[in-house]
Design a protein that fits this description.
Number of strands: 0
Helix content: over 70%
Shape: flat
Mean pLDDT: 90
Largest sheet: none
Strand content: under 5%
Number of helices: 4
C-alpha cells in the first residue's frame, strides 16, 4: 500500500516538473497532506505525545527483544553459506 501511495505521489511530482510548475517545500508539504487525505489517510496535526527519548527507548527495548528471540539462529547469509557448502560437498562426492 505504501509503495502505491509513494509511486502515485512521485507521478504527481513528475507532472509538476513536466509542466515546469515551480514548487517550494511548503507547497510539497501542503500537497502531500492533501494527497494523503484524498487516499483516506490521516495526517498529524501536532507533534504528538511521545518524546524523542521515549521513542528511542521503545525502539531500543523492542530491538533487544528481537535480538533475544533470534539469538542462536543463523542469518540468511549464514544459511546460504551452509547450503553452498553442503551442495559443494555433494558435488565433490559425485565427482569421485
Amino acid at each position: 500500500m505504501l509503495n502505491r501511495i509513494v509511486t502515485a505521489y512521485i507521478e504527481v511530482a513528475e507532472i509538476q516538473a513536466m509542466n515546469k510548475t515551480p514548487m517550494y517545500m511548503s507547497d510539497w508539504i501542503s500537497r502531500l497532506d492533501d494527497f494523503l487525505r484524498m487516499t483516506g489517510k490521516d495526517t498529524l496535526k501536532d507533534a504528538g505525545k511521545i518524546s524523542h527519548e521515549q521513542a528511542m527507548q521503545k525502539a531500543h527495548d523492542e530491538y533487544e527483544k528481537y535480538k533475544d528471540t533470534t539469538k542462536g539462529e543463523l542469518s540468511k547469509v549464514e544459511r546460504d553459506f551452509v547450503e553452498y557448502i553442503d551442495e559443494t560437498a555433494k558435488m565433490l562426492k559425485k565427482g569421485k
